[in-house]
Amino acid sequence: MRSIGVTTFMTLDGVVQGLGRPDEDARGGFAHGGWGPRYNDEVMGQELGKGMAQAGDLLFGRRTWQDFANVWGRATDGNPFSALMNKATKYVVSTTLNDAGGWENSILLRGDAAATVAELKASPGPDLAINGSAALVRSLHAAGLIDDYTLLIHPLTLGSGARLFEQPAPLAEFELIDCVATTKGVLIARYKRAES
């Protein structure tokens, strides 16, 4: 059985919306887009590189997949992350997309997210990594399908914006397996689902 790991950037108050660019995600009038890049440093790059080196297939919600396809799918900068993202098999979970032809090596998973991903998780193949895709993460967490989290907790609060868990999440216990502090105060905390 494959495992599912989540990597997400968040603020101290749990906001995950609009990390990279001012225009990335302005839903709900969110005016703080682009809050994350000023916290990037060499430590974060090294830690993310370790995670990317271990990643198998990628799993996305529709919105994040479309954004990543526009940014990473067109990248010609020689960045190793770009090459890795484009080469990887990418599963996109959606009830509204008609096809996933907009980004190479993408496969559309239609239907209920939890049921579709549970079937994928039970199939043979490499582990699955989710970057962002908060709505998908919430759904899969509620179904007990997330095995581990890497949370990049940034030292700021925004007071508004979509949060990782907007409604109460079901009871689930995780163990801290690693934590690294960057030079700019970001905590990179890795949690694994506790054995029951």
UniProtKB/TrEMBL annotation:
Bacterial bifunctional deaminase-reductase C-terminal domain residues: 4-187
Database matches in InterPro entries: DHFR-like_dom_sf, RibDG_C
Pfam families: RibD_C
Name of the molecule in the record: Dihydrofolate reductase family protein
TM spans (from-to): none
Domain of life: Bacteria
